[in-house]
Write a structure and sequence with these properties.
The protein has 16 helices and 7 strands. With 398 residues, it is an alpha/beta fold. Strands 1-7-6-5-2-3-4 form a 7-stranded mixed beta sheet, with helices on both faces. The radius of gyration is 21 Å and the shape is globular.
């Protein structure tokens, strides 16, 4: 299995900010390791009739994470050599003491090993997270959101654009979907801690034949919203072509892979009216090459985008805009470090090989580019605003 070079060094030397670990009992990452991860293992284990060996492997993985040290992949793993190199500074240490971003990626790789994802047999290449992702597409509430597209398309074009952009940002919040009420609220009041949406639209002049890259995050409702936004870009001639980047295999429970794109297009097609028309346009765009699917092994590697391999860097450099979706991709874009929250987003992303925009629902500690006054007001509330998914951001460097 070809993987990004294990010997790659950071393309850019980051400022002196500590990488986030999981060894602070008061920290968010500690809760992910000690609380959320055991629940996830139980959740997708209960969703499958796994055999005793698979269940034992999942149980052993959880025990290792909570009481043991990080162990390498087993003999015969197709990517054993790469992970041996990537983990040379981490194997033998407590999971809590290695970088948060690294161990989360490795955890999902170990889950695939535990359930026999790579081994020829009855569970070969069976997505352990599929049932959790597809449940969102079966949610009856989604039908109302898709039907609401008929009303959204009656709005003035500028309001349509903003509604679809916000729906893509908040797409996996079941209480919002496409029913976005636009107004003149301050970004903080609307839940946005930073709003560069005007700058984003300025980078997409109509009729310029723009090529846009979209680096997807979650499947399900969020991916549906992403596809609606992509349709807006193409139908409005804001993008002559769009490259949609997804993961090469199941990852982080809900991350989108190719089969999820197909499932979302079919779900759109099942709702008469605007939703079905969107599906038809996107299906045709894939058929004639204006909308293309891309993936790369790097997307499942445990690194920030500072280590982008040359072919991905060229892809992003050739785009008029790369739209990076979601919290994990944000952590990878800026680096999973303890940045000062007011550090300019443009400074942290200056290394990226082309104009970039990040649409993100905040679900982890990392944040940059927030106005100091907004940052102080949010911190003064005493709420965990960085991690609860109640705030979002639209940030652009270009």
């Amino acid at each position: 299995m070809p993987l990004p070079g294990a010997d790659a060094e950071d393309a850019v030397r980051l400022p002196d900010a500590p990488e986030l670990l999981s060894n602070d009992p008061d920290g968010y990452a500690w809760g992910v390791l000690r609380d959320r991860t055991p629940k996830l293992i139980r959740q997708f284990s209960d969703a499958h009739p796994y055999e005793p060996g698979q269940r034992r492997a999942l149980s052993d993985l959880l025990e290792e994470m909570l009481t043991g040290t990080v162990q390498p992949l087993g003999d015969g793993a197709p990517d054993r050599a790469a992970w041996d190199e990537w983990g040379r500074d981490h194997f033998g240490r407590r999971w809590a003491d290695v970088p948060f971003l690294w161990w989360e990626s490795y955890f999902y790789r170990r889950v695939l090993a535990a359930v026999g994802f790579f081994e020829p047999g009855p569970w070969f290449w069976v997505d352990p997270f599929e049932s959790l992702k597809s449940a969102e597409l079966r949610d009856p509430a989604l039908e109302a959101d898709l039907a609401a597209l008929d009303q959204v398309f009656r709005l003035p074009v500028e309001e349509q654009a903003q509604a679809k952009l916000l729906a893509s940002l908040w797409g996996n919040r079941a209480d919002l979907g496409f029913r976005v009420e636009l107004g003149d609220e301050h970004p903080e009041q609307a839940g946005l801690v930073a709003d560069d949406s005007a700058r984003l639209w300025s980078l997409l002049p109509a009729g310029a034949g723009n090529r846009v890259c979209v680096v997807a995050d979650n499947a399900g409702r969020e991916l549906v919203a992403d596809l609606v936004l992509i349709d807006h870009l193409m139908a409005g001639d804001l993008a002559g072509s769009v490259a949609l980047h997804v993961k090469p295999r199941p990852y982080y429970v809900s991350d989108a892979i190719t089969t999820d794109v197909v499932a979302c297009l079919r779900r759109l097609a099942a709702t008469p009216g605007t939703a079905a028309a969107i599906s038809g346009r996107l299906w045709a765009a894939m058929g004639d090459g204006r909308l293309t699917l891309h993936t790369h092994e790097f997307y499942c590697a445990p690194w920030s985008f500072h280590r982008l391999p040359a072919d991905l860097a060229r892809e992003f450099a050739g785009a008029c805009l790369t739209l990076v979706k979601g919290d994990l991709n944000y952590r990878r874009l800026v680096g999973d470090r303890g940045w000062p929250g007011s550090l300019p987003f443009a400074d942290v992303t200056a290394y990226f090989p082309g104009p970039v925009a990040a649409l993100r629902t905040l679900k982890s500690d990392v944040v940059t580019g927030v106005d100091p006054a907004v940052l102080a007001a949010l911190d003064a509330t005493g709420e965990a605003w960085r991690t609860t998914g109640t705030h979002g951001s639209i940030q652009v460097r270009g």
